[in-house]
Every structure is written in C-alpha cells, then in structure tokens.
Amino acid sequence: MTLTGMMLIGAESHRGRNGEIHAIDPSTGAKLEPAFDGGGAAEVDRACQLAWDAFDRFRETAPEDRAVFLEAVARNILDLGDALIVRAMAESGLLRARLEGERGRTVGQLRLFAAVVREGSWLGARIDPALPERAPLPRPDLRQRRIPLGPVAVFGASNFPLAFSVAGGDTASAFAAGCPVVVKAHSAHPGTSELVGRAVQAAVAECGLPEGVFSLIFGAGSSVGTALVADPRIRAVGFTGSRRGGVALMEVAAKRPEPIPVYAEMSSINPVFLLPAALAARAEALGKSFVASLTLGAGQFCTNPGILLAVDGPDLDRFVASAVDALGGSAAPTMLTPGIHAAFDAGVAALAGNARVATLARGLDGDGPNRCRAALFATTADAFLDDPALREEVFGAASLLIRCPDLESLRTVAERLDGQLTATLQMDAADTGAAAVLLPTLERKAGRILANGWPTGVEVCHAMVHGGPFPATSDGRTTSVGTAAIERFLRPVCYQDIPADLLPQALRDGNPLGLWRRFDGALGRH
Ligand SMILES: NC(=O)C1=CN([C@@H]2O[C@H](COP(=O)(O)OP(=O)(O)OC[C@H]3O[C@@H](n4cnc5c(N)ncnc54)[C@H](OP(=O)(O)O)[C@@H]3O)[C@@H](O)[C@H]2O)C=CC1
Ligand SMILES: O=C(O)CCC(=O)C(=O)O
Question: What is the ipTM metric for this complex?
Fold first, then answer.
C-alpha cells in the first residue's frame, strides 16, 4: 500500500491545509517521505459529525456483528504484511522483533475484545421483575443494561506505534463498547498510522458499518487535539503520553459546558522494593535482571523501573556491583524521537548535577543520533523526601536507587510516593512480614503489585490493571490494558416499566442473546 499522506475522514481520504508533518527516522535523523497533511477545525468538525451520526446505529449492532468487525480490523492489519513493520521501524527506531511482537499483541487484543463482545457480560444486564402485590408499595419492573458513552477521541502513543496507537487498546476497547472513534495520530509515526488507519477504514466498509465509526486526523501541536477534546460530540478520551499533555487535555475536558471523562495514562516511576532476605539470597541475580528490565526498549515504557528502594548494607552493595557491571556494558539503542531523547538527556543531566545524587553507572555511548545511554543513580531516603524533583519520571533507561537506613524509613518513602502504575516487591519467604507491612501502602499507591518479577511487559488479559492513582493516570478506577478497559466507555441505563417490545434485546424476557444476567439478584443465564 502506498502512503498518501492524507487523513481518513469517514470513508474518504482527505487533504489537509494546516501545514505538513514529516516523520523522522530517529536512527539517522533523516526526514521520511511523504509529507502528511495537518488537519484543523474543519476536519475535527467533519469527523465528529460523522462519528455522532454513526453512533446510534453502531451501538446497536448485534454482539456478533461487532465482534466480526473487530476481527476484520485484526485481519486487515495482518494483511498489511511487512510494509507495516518496515515503516514502523523507520519511524520509531524500534527493532523488527519488538514490532512484530507488538503487532501480535495488537491483533490479539482486537480478537480478545471480539470474544468479550460475544460473551456479553459487559452489558451488565440486570432484571428486577415487578412485584405488584408487594406491600406497602408494589415494585415496578426494573431492568438495567450498559450503553456506550458516545464517540471517543483516541490519542496514539509514541512508544507503542501499534499496540497503543491507531488500533491499539483504547480504540479496541472503545469499538468493543460500541463507540465510534476519532484518532489523533501521533506525529512521530504518521505513516504507520495511515497504514493501520486504512486497515480500520476498510473493515468498517467490509462490515457495512456507517463510515463515521472511524476517522484519523493528523496535526502537530496542540490545536487539533484540543479541538477534538472540546468538541461536544466527543464523549470520552483515551490518551497515553506525557503528564503535561494529559493534564492539558484533562483541563480542556473539564472546562467544557458538558465535561467528559479523560482516561490519560501519563507518568509513573514504578518503585521496586528490594527486601532484605531477597537481597541476601540473590543480590547478583537481581542486579542483572533489574538492568535487563531497565534497558528493555531503551527504557521507553511507562512501566520502567525508575526507582529502587532498599535497606543499605553489604547485600545492597553486592546488588549495586552487579547492576553497575551489567549497565556499564549495555548498548545505546535509538530512542523514539529527538524530543524524547532530548528530554531523557535533560532528565539524566539534572540527576547527575544534583549534589545529593551519586552517579553509579552509565551505559555505553552509541554512534548516531538519539541514542539512549542508560544511567543508574543513588541517593538517600532523606534527600528523596526533601526534593520533589527526584520523584519525577525520566522517560528512558534511567533509575534512582534510594538507600534507606532501615525498613521503617523504606515505608516512609513509600508513603510519600505519587500514584504509580506498578509497585514491585523482590522478596523471599523471610520478607513476608516486611511485605505485609508495605502492602496497604502499595495498594493505595499503585494499580498493579508484583512479587519477584519486573514491571515491564504487561499481559493483555482479563485480570490486568494498567492504571493507578494520579499522576500515573487521570482516573485510578480503570485500566487501559486488558478486557476491563471496556468499562471506561460504558454507562448504565435503567428501564422502568418499559413495554416489552421497546426493551433492548439484552433485557427481553426469554434472554434472546443468551446472556449471563442478574435476575432478582441471582446471576445466571436467566
Ligand atoms: N506514560 C507513558 O506511557 C508515556 C510517557 N511519555 C512521556 O511523554 C514525553 C513526550 O512523548 P510524547 O509521546 O510525544 O507525548 P506527548 O504527551 O507530548 O504527546 C502525546 C500526544 O498528545 C498530543 N499532545 C501533547 N500535548 C498536547 C496538548 N497540550 N494539547 C493537545 N494535544 C497534545 C501530541 O501531539 P503531537 O503528535 O503533535 O506531538 C501527541 O499526539 C516523553 O518524553 C515521556 O516523558 C511518552 C510516551 C508514553
Ligand atoms: O509494558 C507494556 O506492555 C505497556 C507499557 C505502557 O503502557 C507504556 O509504556 O505506555
């Protein structure tokens, strides 16, 4: 498929007039062709109107039809073949194996959501039948189901050009819920976005759905994104990116005459607690596996282990020696964009220049632009508590070790942490008591708590929580990965004494969709 540089507004390819966007190959710094047209208010207006026009029909598609659509998107993405991988490699600097894996994850999550749609429990069907004889007052017939919120604006993420972008988790979960989607493409990978966008656009047509179910708009800077979130026809937002960008969009959404939810995944430093017995038993192995997690994908994961906490002593010194050795030999991969590289270098320079922070190790330098030279720093618990700058995310392979005098101080530091996507315990059986003391704090701080693993690598499944209190996300009640992500785009409606032939299929007598429903309180296929 040849790239056109055009936006996809419903069924049409559309030329924009608001400047040009060029992807940059971060491994060379070269501009990539073609130029992509920037959109503006006219494109946002047209895409949102089409999405709104499509909403009532799309949301009432039968579960089977919606599932077939999700599967068609997955198949069309695979049919793009190697051209998709080659373009994504050029635009992101990510390696082939990583992008092939990410494509598998993208297709897998679309298919998983198809299965969820078919299974139907997301509809939350509940029936409390009328009790006309009840005294002192009769009960009316009450039936509840969940309906989608409306058109959703999705912002593609730079660090997952497939799995968190045009047809990534936000889009898949919004489609599954029955929401049309308008994507604001990330300016770092417009070609990848066009290719995937065309796969989605083709699936909409193949499945006979209204064209407004999907649109894709380009636009550098804040104006397109802001206009999209401000548009009254948009009813929710999915975002993965910087804290600054996410907070700006939260403000736009909150100032609307009718505010809407923004599901923004932003900034997390993912604390790892190295508990004493684990350190005593396997300090060297932990040092090596920590560096493997830290440097994976140049550290460009929001789940990257950005701080380590441990009680100071000889076992921690053994961990440090092992980590310093592994990190000192780590290669310098290319980062996603010149901007992300510049932000990484600035964050590392700020830590290196902090009088209360020691530089323990730097990775190897690399030839070529935008290379990520990994970094490991150390500080004390007191310094960490005194200086809020030490709690800020440095996006990339940089981590800060906090040497604590004792377990009590480790818990004090944990209490002062901001909201996190993850918190990790490296523990042995003898650490169970210390872990139990930390656990209530970690539950309040994080969306996912792990033992004896590393936080990078998020399983797409039913029990996953990829979320957490602010600033990890804008709404800690939800997840952006896994099937529970569909919940973000639904709201309940109760039907009281509505005549049988007006009721939605999900709530009709005889259970025509064969759903699990809560009937008079009891869950079953009533
Ligand atoms: N927590 C996480 O998972 C991630 C965090 N980051 C952090 O974000 C930094 C920059 O990376 P990047 O991916 O570009 O993230 P950004 O937040 O800068 O951009 C994400 C998307 O939002 C748009 N956008 C940004 N700010 C605004 C705004 N004020 N109003 C409207 N739209 C906006 C961008 O537009 P445009 O396309 O024009 O840039 C882009 O489409 C990294 O250095 C890192 O710190 C990055 C990736 C993931
Ligand atoms: O590690 C993962 O699989 C997901 C991480 C993520 O959501 C992110 O880095 O933005």
Answer: 0.95
